[in-house]
Each structure stands twice: as structure tokens, then as C-alpha cells.
Amino acid sequence: MLTKHLAQVLDTLNMKALLIWAVLLNFYKLLQTSDCTSTHDQVLSIQVTTHQQADIVRNISSQYETVLWSPASPEYIGAHTEVHLFVPANNLGTVTDLLQTHHLTHQVLLDNTEELIEMQTRNESSDPRSSASYYERYHSLEDIYYWINKTAQEHPDMVKVILIGSSYEKRPLYVLKLSGRQERAEKRAIWIDCGIHAREWISPAFCLWFVQYSLNFYNLNNDITEMLNSMDIYVLPVMNPDGYKYTWTTNRMWRKNRSLSKESNCVGTDLNRNFDANWGTKGASNRPCDEIYCGQFPESEPEAEAVANFLRSHKDSVKLYLSIHSYGQMLLFPYSCSNEEVPNHAELFELVQDAAMKIRRYYRNNYKYGASAKTIYLAPGGSDDWAYNLGIHYSFTFELEDRGRYGFLLPPSLISKACNEALLALKSIALRVIQKTQPQP
Ligand code: 9B3
Ligand code: ZN
Ligand code: ZN
After folding, report:
1. Which residues form the active site (predicted)?
2. Does residue 70 have its Cβ closer than 6 Å to ligand 1?
3. Would the CA dihedral through 227, 416, 173, 399 be positive or negative?
């Protein structure tokens, strides 16, 4: 009896201690999340409304150790731009003070980037409680090479691996060629590349997703069956393996490839500025330290050259070109390198409009769509514009999710949503292109 009473007293004491502890913990968290005292790296969303403010934000992003998430380069910041800026903890005070001084409104978009990065890189395959499939996680470069090999071995009737070249650091560039089991003479083809930009992790994840979907649902889903019976599909899961590797080991925010420049200590060329489409004009940079550095000359980078060579030698069969990026939720088509409209602008517009409508209807998500130069920004040297000029007149760039919150740090749990909606858009466009490019008997 006495011992029972004692236990009760002890229990309430424990509860009190726990309560006090919880209050203290919350107070500490509150301190951490107010901008100036945060001990975390943050991503700020900054509302620019005037040209003067645009100048200030451009200066901040270039003078302080920060990483511009959106837009990709300071020169794209104009009046009326929402800027997403990654700011390391040690610079937060200075940066937010500057923003306040110049009456720039900002919100903290992310205060837990370390945590999100940890979530993205955690290997859950060993965790039996996790129900997430291989395709609902992000994978290291080594994992992806292993997966390419295994996928080809498990589906010898439908998959061939083609080595199209190697990266600056001599990593192989493998393309998976997917084919239906119906042999047809003069087969048309689709090209899909992922991972041009290293930090856009949802992009390689989409390529993997698409390949497994194609293999699992061939002869089960009508759309994918028709696609694979009429077209071969070339999939390049990681166009920028050196950069991708670097985002896993060293710097999660890296965008370019990893080539060394002769004239500077800065590393990397933007592969999506290195193609021969108004190369080096406004919207690209000739300074090696910039995020949108266009390289020494068109196709100076082995990754871009390999893709261009492959497409040149398959240009008669490839009818549809598709490049996967993130983030921003957009379905884009040429030109990006000029404000001019392409000859089949209306046709391409209808295709992306239709695809965006389907995403809205089935996934309640809004994708923007249109010609790149007018929808995102004027930028030369992109792969889609180059492919268009080569004669592939159905050429698109998809910018996949986030839905406005996570940017490049999209949690693994949101991979399936992002991929399914992009898959819907891809199927919608591909099926229409198959009809439009029917060989004449
Ligand atoms: C840029 C260009 Cl140059 C293009 N031709 N198509 C799309 C884009 C947008 C991507 C980029 O490279 O900046 C978005 Se990450
Ligand atoms: Zn990109
Ligand atoms: Zn992007």
C-alpha cells in the first residue's frame, strides 16, 4: 500500500519534470526558427517588386556565400520575381539585415535543409518498416549504374544498354534502349534525358521511374504498350554523372558538370548552355565561375558532345526529344534561345496545354506551359532548342515538382506524385506525336 502511494507521487513528479522539459524545448526551438538567431541554413523566398530591389538581390546573391535556387542565375532576376535563395547559417544575419534595410519582404521557405538532405540520402532499403519501393527513394550514382546493369539483365528481350560516351571525369554515359516485342521496320524513336543539372534529383528519379513503369506495364497498360510497339525509347538516366556524384559527396546545391577551366579556378560548365543554339548569347555567361557558364565553345563538354553525337546519328528516327529538369512545374518547348516562335508553335502549344490540363484534372496540380523564352527566361545553348534545330520538331523540357515548398530537396515520399504526373504528360504528348508522325505507306 505504502509503496503504491510512493510510486504515484514519483509518477506525478516525473510528469512535472517532463512538462517543464517540453516547455523549455519548445522555447529553444522558437529561438532557433526566428531568422536572425537560426543556427540552420535556410532557404528564403524573397519578393522582388522593383528594379532597384532586383539590383540589391542580385548583389546579395553574388557577394555573399549563398546559392541561388530560383531563378538559376542573378541575371534572370527582374522586377516582379520571386527569388529563392539558399543562405548558410553563418550569413543569415547579414543577409536578412540587408533585406530589411532595403524593404524587401521575405519568408523562410525552409529552415530544415540539413534534415531534408538527410532524408533524401538515407538508405531505407535496410529498414524493414519502410514500405517505400526502390523507385520512391533517391539513389547514389553507384546505385544507378548497378540498377542499369540489373535492369538490362532482367529484361534482355526489351532492354539494351548503349554506351554513348563518357563524362569529363571519365564516367560512362549509359543509355537504356527500350523496345516492345513487336519488330517493325524503320522504327521511330523517343529520346529522354535526365540529370543534366546535378542538383535536380527528381530528374534521374523520374528516368528510373519511367523505365520500371514501361517494363512492368508493357502489355498491361494500353498507352505504354502502344508507345513501345511504335517507338523505341532511349533513356539517359544521368547525363551529368560527375555533377550528380558531387551533389552526393560534397555539395548538394551543385548544378554544372565538373570540368576544369583553363582560364580560371572555377569548376564546371552548365551543360544546358553548352549546345549549339545561339550559343553564348544573352541568357548564358562566358565567366567560368557563373552557374550558367556556357563553356569554351559549343559542345566543349564531353557530356553534351556525346548526346549531340548520338542524336545526330539517330536524327531520322528520333521524333520526340524530352529533357527532364526541376523545379518549377512547367512544360516547355522551343525556343528558349530566342523570342521568335518556332514554325509549329501552335501545334506544340496545344500538346503542352493538353498535358497540363490532364495534370490539373488528375492530380490537381497546376503546371505552366509555353515557349521557354516567354514562360521561364531567355536562355541560349539548351539541348531542346538544339534538338529542334536538328530537325526533331517535337522537343520539350519538363520542369517537375516541388509544389512550391521544397525546391531541390523534395522528400522521397513525394517522388511518386511528381513522377506520376510527369508520366501522364509524357504519355499524352508521346501518343499524339505517334499519330502525327505515322509513316506514310
Ligand atoms: C533553359 C534552356 Cl537554355 C532551355 N533551352 N530549356 C530550358 C531551360 C530551363 C532550365 C535551365 O537550363 O535553366 C531550367 Se533548370
Ligand atoms: Zn535544370
Ligand atoms: Zn530548373
Report:
1. 399 (proton donor/acceptor)
2. no
3. positive
Which one, of 318, 281, 279, 315, lies nearest residue 299 by Cα?
A: 279
336 in ligand 1 pocket by Cβ < 6 Å? yes
d(CA 134, CA 158): 20
Residue 1 confidence (pLDDT) above 60: no
Residue pointed to by grid coordinates 546573391? 61
Say whether pTM exceeds 0.85: yes
Cα angle, residue 257 at apex, residues 57 and 201 outer, rounded to 5°: 75
User: Which residues are 44's β-sheet partners?
Assistant: 85, 108
In the reported structure, the alpha carbon of residue 273 is separated from the centroid of ligand 3 by a whole-number distance in angstroms of 13
Q: At 111, give phi and psi (nearest 5°).
A: -120, 0
Q: Which of 325, 337, 385, 396 to mutate to test the pocket of ligand 1 (most atoms within 8 A of CB)?
A: 325
The CB of 328 under 6 Å from ligand 1? The reply is no
Q: How confident is the model at residue 33 (pLDDT cuts 50, 70, 90)?
A: very low
Q: Is 202 in the pocket of ligand 1 (CB under 6 A)?
A: no
Q: Which helix (H) or strand (E) holds 59?
A: helix 51-63
Q: Give dist(CA 60, CA 58) in Å, integer.
A: 6
Mind listing the pLDDT tens digit for each residue in 189-215? 999 999 999 999 999 999 999 999 999
Which residue minimizes the CA distance to atom 12 of ligand 1?
Answer: 272
Q: Do 194 and 138 form a contact (C-beta atoms < 8 A)?
A: no
Nearest CA to ligand 1 atom 2: 382
Q: Model confidence at 186, in pLDDT bands (50, 70, 90)?
A: confident
Active site members? 399
Q: Are 109 and 43 in contact (CB under 8 A)?
A: yes
Question: From ligand 1's centre to the CA of 270, what distance in Å?
Answer: 10
Q: What is the CA(336)–ligand 1 centre distance, in A?
A: 7
User: Which helix (H) or strand (E) is 45 found in, with range?
Assistant: strand 42-48
3-state SS track over 141-201? HHHHHHHHHHHHHHCCCCEEEEEEEECCCCCEEEEEEECCCCCCCCCEEEEEEECCCCCCC
| Each residue's pLDDT tens digit, 394-421 | 999 999 999 999 999 999 999 999 999 9
Choosing from 335, 372, 396 the residue with most ligand 1 atoms within 8 A of its CB, the one to mutate for a pocket test is 372
Cα(436) to ligand 3 centroid in Å equals 29
